[in-house]
């Protein structure tokens, strides 16, 4: 790790200002950023911790019935506090990493990082959530732009994420045995207006919506509807944990299981 | 009633108090006055020519005190291999120099070619970065694949070794023809090609070393994470740095696991000593986890073709193994013995097979050195044999259990001389096999298959019956085979004046529980309480000599040395008692901690004898020396041969290829058991490591020699929820016939016996589930591989 300055603002405005400095970077739970810094692969001059900004921490339900999660809310808090409002989302948060990761890692950090194997992107895209930053609202469909790439500008802070609550939903995570990130993760959510299916872990373009499955499930929300599909095509990741073909196959299996589990 | 102390008792591990409360003292915990930090500069390419190293920028960095490169060690010796192996054509193995720091060429990713010493760790890191920036390395094509390595004479890991071959070994060469003949005339030949996957040892504590030098006395001290401190001292002194042995103390304090990887001497140890001398300050180095992945000696990495010639009834007539073993870029200390005499010699397994031949080519590649890792050679042999037998049974339409019953050696055949050069002294392989079947409820298996099927799962069962050779090792034998050292061990038993004991042992405990078990043995023999006995290990200044801990040798060799030293104490105690009781020495008996004159009530307690030994006011000094301290060196007559039968039951999810182990049963024969709880712990740990190898551990280099599985994000280690409850039994014991304690050693057994049981179970599940085309899946049997095999 190289030397760096540390700032811990208590408001979003202060954080925005601090992030305006040369080579400043936001710090959420540090579960991704700190290991990278320890390996000297990242060298921000200033870390701006978002953990002291109380308006960015917590779970609530707004007037529109959306579950709103502050951008600096740790996974463990989501697992606990969203359980009554959006069980599938809470369950997803409760299976990220290990207790240490869940107690430190935040939803904003996860979404800003957009690891192709991370869990939250599947929930956000699968729910058609809105990502609120210090300057604008970004629809999930516009937000994810490929592996580790998002619509965020430099210094832009995710302050909140708003999830419309579906009638039924479930997340199925097939773990990669070493990291226990998702080798393939599928989030299925059934809304009045149709079904959304978001897949993480599988594609080298990051999280994506499996539109064939969405179409089939929108007319028949059953595992049988998934069984009838061919596996998704596209640019599947192939690595020592699984070939592209295997991942494509798992997408289908996990989608079927998510539908069955959603009930 | 189970005993509550002494031999055979489940005494709680006394060392756990400090380990579990954070009071252990590991190398990196030690703070030295005036200490400075070393950071190694490691190659980021697998193979390259060092064109130039400009050290000036690094030297000018704040806090940097010294920079070392390969040039600084060009004149000192190399780190040698412990065994000289000869090729089939009689030529000695090719033995390239393994320098302290790479010189001229770098040969694997992680190969250290320089070191920077600075006042603080961060400054040393900065210096190392500056040094790397000032280094020009011309990348050369990497030699990664073994078959390609021996085929391409132009691409050389070591310029002087044209075909990257270390040696081409035959065992036993005289058997070759008979095996060929038997194969030709056999009614059936089963052939299987398999890979024994490379493993990264992953000891919980990374390697660490601290070098100290006292310019006033010229004394050096090395505190280091070693399983083998005396050997390290010998290698540093006699081979690498030329320090007189009496001027170097090597201390291996608490060590957090080794599994083989800390047997060996590594360049960092010589580096910190040389740097300490140059700077006159303690120099410390601790590996980062990424460095451990890249630079600890890895394990396994064999590619094998195994053939069994047999009758249609499944009687095995001949076995032939043709193996390529990867040794990586340099020869680590045991790299040449592990694939040969710890592998070829056990290829008869526990079976009657009359003809066995092993051919082994050992190959250099641009990867981390490969050496002994828990089990060392014997897991590779066991996996080959047990996988092949299973395949043979299947091809013949026979029950794998029946095939084993037919071929296992029977108790009346011991001592049994195998066709590959060992003499098994004793065993009862039928007993452990039947015991395992009983414990695992083999009879109820079919019902469980049906249950699993009802849940959409494929159930399978896999067996492994194995024998290994450990308790390394009889010096007379290993000397003939090429060992450059003897493999005895030593113990000193020092009785203090007040009757407490300090027992110095050449074995090193890095998790095994020696401090508890050795104390049980000594206390039991002397009829005193265990807490009167202190076990001292890991310090060359305190211990007479020792060959360290590996090869399940601590109890079998060092434990027996201790036994013999205690016998000498008793003999001396009798002399003292005879004097005190005014009786003839021959009339003194020793029992339950008391020396008495036979047939009388005259007696002296052990404590009284001890006190007298140190307060000898009236000793007849001509006949009786004061003091009560004895040393014994014990050299075993033979290897010991633990054996067992392991059964693994799995469920395979046909939709995903996920394998879940439902239960795992071990029936072991370890001879006499000193502490059943410690033995169970050793078997649990070994089995978990074996399950790790079989199911998830995957060391992958890409063709350019980058280690793709170089962190825990990619390299999976077994966790609690990956393993089932393990049933462990060691009641079928046939005590070793040639050591005083009758013990065989249990440290490696779990890792040796378990991988084939797991893979056999997976194949069984797939076969029963209708995937009859799947006859083998290489380890680790990851979901992806299982699924690919099912759908292949
Ligand atoms: C052992 C381990 C296991 C894990 N397992 C999983 C898993 O199973 N599934 C999974 O999804 N994830 C997993 N993770 C990742 C974990 O969820 C991380 O917490 C997450 O990726 C990053 O969140 P963070 O708050 O720690 O972000 P940080 O590491 O602090 O930051 C990551 C990046 O996001 C930026 N950033 C942080 N907060 C904000 C914000 N509010 N607005 C804008 N930018 C921001 C930072 O500048 C940085 O670039 C695991 C991590 C570890 C270490």
Features:
heterodimer, A: alpha+beta, Uridine Diphospho-n-acetylenolpyruvylglucosamine Reductase, domain 2, Uridine Diphospho-n-acetylenolpyruvylglucosamine Reductase, domain 3, Enolase-like, domain 1, 3 domains, 11 helices, 12 strands, 33% helix, 22% strand, globular, B: 792 residues, alpha+beta, Aldehyde Oxidoreductase, domain 3, Aldehyde Oxidoreductase, domain 4, seven-stranded mixed β-sheet, 19 helices, 28 strands, binds flavin-adenine dinucleotide
What can you see in these coordinates?
The complex is a heterodimer of chains A (263) and B (792). Chain A is of the alpha+beta class. Helices cover 33% and strands 22% of the residues of chain A. Chain A folds into three domains: 45 residues, 2-Layer Sandwich (Uridine Diphospho-n-acetylenolpyruvylglucosamine Reductase, domain 2); 110 residues, 2-Layer Sandwich (Uridine Diphospho-n-acetylenolpyruvylglucosamine Reductase, domain 3), CATH 3.30.465; 95 residues, CO dehydrogenase flavoprotein, C-terminal domain (Enolase-like, domain 1, 2-Layer Sandwich), CATH 3.30.390.50. In chain A, strand 4 and strand 5 form a beta hairpin. Chain B has three domains: 198 residues, Alpha-Beta Complex (Aldehyde Oxidoreductase, domain 3), CATH 3.90.1170; 246 residues, Aldehyde oxidase/xanthine dehydrogenase, molybdopterin binding domain (Aldehyde Oxidoreductase, domain 4, 2-Layer Sandwich); 147 residues, 2-Layer Sandwich (Aldehyde Oxidoreductase, domain 4), CATH 3.30.365. Helices cover 28% and strands 22% of the residues of chain B. Chain B is built from 19 helices and 28 strands. Chain B has a seven-stranded mixed β-sheet with strand order 3-5-1-12-9-10-11, with helices on both faces. In chain B, strands 7-15-14-13-8 form a five-stranded mixed β-sheet, with helices on both faces. In chain B, helix 17 links the parallel strand 27 and strand 28. In chain B, helix 14 runs parallel beside helix 15, helix 15 packs across helix 16 and helix 17 crosses helix 18. The longest helix of chain B has 28 residues. The interface between A and B is medium-sized, with 19 and 24 residues. The structure holds flavin-adenine dinucleotide. The site of flavin-adenine dinucleotide has 32 residues of chain A, from strand 2, helix 5 and helix 6. Flavin-adenine dinucleotide (FAD) binds next to strand 2, helix 5 and helix 6 of chain A.
């Amino acid at each position: 790790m190289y030397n760096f300055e540390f700032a811990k603002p208590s408001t979003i405005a202060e954080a925005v200002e601090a992030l305006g400095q040369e080579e400043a970077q936001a710090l959420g739970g540090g579960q991704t950023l700190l290991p990278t810094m320890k390996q000297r692969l990242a060298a921000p001059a200033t870390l701006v911790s978002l953990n002291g900004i109380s308006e960015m921490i917590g779970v609530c339900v707004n007037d529109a019935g959306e579950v709103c999660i502050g951008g600096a809310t740790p996974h463990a808090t989501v697992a606990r506090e969203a359980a009554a409002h959006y069980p599938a989302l809470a369950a997803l948060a409760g299976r990220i990493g290990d207790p240490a990761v869940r107690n430190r890692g935040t939803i904003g950090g996860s979404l800003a990082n957009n690891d192709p194997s991370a869990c939250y992107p599947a929930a956000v895209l699968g729910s058609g959530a809105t990502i609120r930053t210090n300057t604008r609202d970004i629809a999930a469909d516009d937000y994810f732009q490929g592996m580790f790439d998002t619509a965020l500008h430099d210094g832009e802070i995710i302050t909140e994420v708003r999830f419309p609550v579906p009638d039924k939903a479930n997340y199925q995570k097939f773990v990669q045995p070493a990291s226990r990130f998702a080798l393939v993760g599928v989030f299925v959510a059934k809304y009045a207006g149709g079904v959304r299916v978001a897949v993480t872990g599988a594609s080298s373009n990051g999280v994506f919506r499996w539109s064939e499955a969405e179409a089939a499930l929108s007319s028949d929300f059953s595992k049988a509807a998934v069984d009838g599909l061919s596996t998704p095509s596209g640019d599947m990741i192939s690595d020592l944990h699984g070939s592209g073909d295997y991942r494509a196959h798992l997408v289908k299996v996990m989608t079927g299981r998510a539908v069955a589990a959603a009930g | 009633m189970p005993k509550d102390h002494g031999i055979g008792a489940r005494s709680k591990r006394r060392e756990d108090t400090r380990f579990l409360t954070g009071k252990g003292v590991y190398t990196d915990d030690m703070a030295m006055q005036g200490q400075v930090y070393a950071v190694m500069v490691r190659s980021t390419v697998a193979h390259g020519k060092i064109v130039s190293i400009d050290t000036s920028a690094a030297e000018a960095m704040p806090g940097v005190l010294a920079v070392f490169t390969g040039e600084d060690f060009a004149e000192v010796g190399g780190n040698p291999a412990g065994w000289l192996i000869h090729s089939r054509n009689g030529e000695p193995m090719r033995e390239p120099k393994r320098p302290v720091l790479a010189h001229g060429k770098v040969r694997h990713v992680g190969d250290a070619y320089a070191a920077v010493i600075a006042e603080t760790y961060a400054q040393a890191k900065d210096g190392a970065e500056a040094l790397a920036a000032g280094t020009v390395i011309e990348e050369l094509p990497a030699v990664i694949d073994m078959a390609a390595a021996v085929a391409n004479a132009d691409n050389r890991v070591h310029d002087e070794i044209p075909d990257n071959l270390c040696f081409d070994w035959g065992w036993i060469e005289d058997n070759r023809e008979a095996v060929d003949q038997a194969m030709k005339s056999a009614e059936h030949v089963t052939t299987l090609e398999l890979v024994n996957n490379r493993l990264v040892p992953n000891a919980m504590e990374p390697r660490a070393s601290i070098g100290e030098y006292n310019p006033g006395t010229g004394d050096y001290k090395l505190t280091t994470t070693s399983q083998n401190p005396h050997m390290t001292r010998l290698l540093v002194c006699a081979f690498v740095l030329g320090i007189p042995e009496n001027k170097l103390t090597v201390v291996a304090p608490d060590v957090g696991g080794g599994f083989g990887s800390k047997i060996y001497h590594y360049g960092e140890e010589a580096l910190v000593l040389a740097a300490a001398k140059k700077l006159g300050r303690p120099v410390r180095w601790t590996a980062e986890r990424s460095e451990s992945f890249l630079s600890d000696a890895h394990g396994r990495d064999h590619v094998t073709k195994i053939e069994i010639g047999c009758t249609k009834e499944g009687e095995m007539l001949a076995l032939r193994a043709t193996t390529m073993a990867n040794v990586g870029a340099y020869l680590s200390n045991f790299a040449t013995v592990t694939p040969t005499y710890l592998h070829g010699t056990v290829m008869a397994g526990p079976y009657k097979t009359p003809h066995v031949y092993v051919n082994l080519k050992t190959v250099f590649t641009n990867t981390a050195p490969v050496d002994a890792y828990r089990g060392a050679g014997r897991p590779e042999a066991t996996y080959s044999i047990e996988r092949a037998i299973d395949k043979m049974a299947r091809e013949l339409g026979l029950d794998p259990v029946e095939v084993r019953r037919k071929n296992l050696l029977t108790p009346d055949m011991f001592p049994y001389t195998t066709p590959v050069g060992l003499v098994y002294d004793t065993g009862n392989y039928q007993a452990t096999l039947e015991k395992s079947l009983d414990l695992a409820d083999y009879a109820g298996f079919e019902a469980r298959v049906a249950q699993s099927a009802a849940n959409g799962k494929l159930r399978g069962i896999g067996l492994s019956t194995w024998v290994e050779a450990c308790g390394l090792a009889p010096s007379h034998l290993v000397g003939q085979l090429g060992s450059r050292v003897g493999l005895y061990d030593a113990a000193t038993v020092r009785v203090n004046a007040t009757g407490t004991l300090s027992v110095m042992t050449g074995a090193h405990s890095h998790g095994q529980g020696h401090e508890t078990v050795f104390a049980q043995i000594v206390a039991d023999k002397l009829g005193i309480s265990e807490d009167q006995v202190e076990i001292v290990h890991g310090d060359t200044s305190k211990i007479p000599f020792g060959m360290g801990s590996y090869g399940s040798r601590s109890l079998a060799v060092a434990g027996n040395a201790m036994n013999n030293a205690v016998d000498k104490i008793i003999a001396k105690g009798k002399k003292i008692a005879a004097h005190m009781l005014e009786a003839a020495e021959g009339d003194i008996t020793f029992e339950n901690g008391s020396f008495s004159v036979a047939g009388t009530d005259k007696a002296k307690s052990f404590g009284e004898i001890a006190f007298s030994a140190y307060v000898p006011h009236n000793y007849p000094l001509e006949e009786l020396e004061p003091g009560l301290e004895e040393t014994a060196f014990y050299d075993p007559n033979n290897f010991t041969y633990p054996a067992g039968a392991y059964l693994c039951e799995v469920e395979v999810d046909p939709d995903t290829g996920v394998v879940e182990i439902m239960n795992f049963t071990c029936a072991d024969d370890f001879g006499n058991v000193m502490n059943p709880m410690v033995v169970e712990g050793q078997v649990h740990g070994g089995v978990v490591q074996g399950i790790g190898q079989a199911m998830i551990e995957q060391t992958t280099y890409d063709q350019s020699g980058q280690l793709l599985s170089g962190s825990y994000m990619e390299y999976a280690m077994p966790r609690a929820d990956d393993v089932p409850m393990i049933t462990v039994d060691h009641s079928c014991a046939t005590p070793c016939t040639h050591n005083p304690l009758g013990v065989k050693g249990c440290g490696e057994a779990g890792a040796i016996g378990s991988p084939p049981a797991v893979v056999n179970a997976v194949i069984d599940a797939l076969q029963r589930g209708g995937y009859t085309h799947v006859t083998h899946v290489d380890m680790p049997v990851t979901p992806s591989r299982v699924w690919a095999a099912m759908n292949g």
